[in-house]
Write a structure and sequence with these properties.
Strand content: 5-15%
Mean pLDDT: 94
Distance between the termini: 31 Å
Shape: globular
Low-confidence stretches: none
Structural class: alpha+beta
Oligomer: single chain
Largest sheet: 2 strands, antiparallel
């Protein structure tokens, strides 16, 4: 296993958005989170690819 999974806080910081925006928009905007137990986690490479695909 390489690298760690990003938390919602990590993703919000990376995107420059508030944590509330990330929670409100992860499904509608397709942010590539996966549920790990009750928590949302995201692979860094998947997030970078998602950002690159945004208009």
């Amino acid at each position: 296993m390489t690298g760690r999974l990003l938390t919602v806080d990590d993703v919000a910081e990376y995107l420059g958005k508030p944590k509330g925006w990330v929670y409100a928009n992860w499904k509608p905007r397709g942010i590539p989170f996966r549920k790990v137990g009750q928590a949302l986690r995201c692979r860094p490479a998947a997030l970078e690819e998602w950002v690159d695909d945004q208009n």
